[in-house]
Predict the 3D structure of the following.
Amino acid sequence: MRRRRLGNTGIEVTELCFGVLPMGPNQRGLPPEEGGRLIRKAIERGVNFLDTAQSYGTYPHIRAALDSLPDRGRDVVISTKSAAKTYEEMAAAVLEARRALGRDVIDIFLLHAARVDASVFDERKGAYECLLDMKSKGIVRAVGISTHSVQVVGKATEVDGIDIVFPIINVRGMGILHGTRDDMVQAIKRAASAGRGLFAMKALAGGNLLSDIEGAFAYVRALEGISAVAVGMVDEEELEVNLAIFNGRPVPLKTRVANTKELVIQAFCIGCGKCVETCPNMAMEVVDGMARNDKSKCILCGYCAPVCPQFAIRLV
Ligand code: SF4
Ligand code: SF4
């Protein structure tokens, strides 16, 4: 599989990045051993890049995969992120990742900033300073930000020290904040020209674009500045389809993946609005005391489920 360098970092990754969100407790809820077997299989088939986050609850799945490999996955590049706001919170998040993953050095550590605007660099100044300190001590190799916002990609092009930007981009522009799809394409291009390494999230818009999976991936892979694409996977069929596409092989019809994911709000919702505040895509509202999901905006990221105090949201 084709490998590409992430900006000026010297880190080389496969174009297919294994997204380790959906197998975790926020979505499919695979046990770590089962998820770990799938991750291991992907690594054995050539994938060397994993994307996770403190909030995904999937460090144990990655650890299970690494521990089962003869060299403990020495060449596997792990990118993680945290919504920490202060220096101390970020220091704790980095320590947690190092312990949970069994690695002294984390390859890529990002500010997890899906929903916010460019003020994130002021509001989370302490957390970002911590990442820069971790990098100068050699505990983190590269730092940056994950975002759904065109504004944030623009700001990350200017802020000193940013190595990596992880933006949302897909052919339909679903989930993009503070601009259009084409604004995001231009922002990505400028960030890459400034030496940032970029990999893309939500190329399939949470499964909404699965009816033309080849077209959806081809669009993002062709974008100037995008080195890799993070793709969530929960079973072998999805892995096989994605390996075929990223290795330039035809996808056998019988293994075509259908979008079976659905967001369900259960009747014991109390209308507290926490999911509305959390959703990066304004896809939730409370109507008559009950949460309601707008399927035309929802990218099935699952970020709303863990914040619900009633456990009323499920991605099934
Ligand atoms: S967070 Fe849960 S309880 Fe609150 S409005 Fe959303 S679904 Fe309902
Ligand atoms: S409603 Fe939930 S799953 Fe859908 S986009 Fe918003 S946070 Fe993601």
Remarks:
- The mean pLDDT is 93.
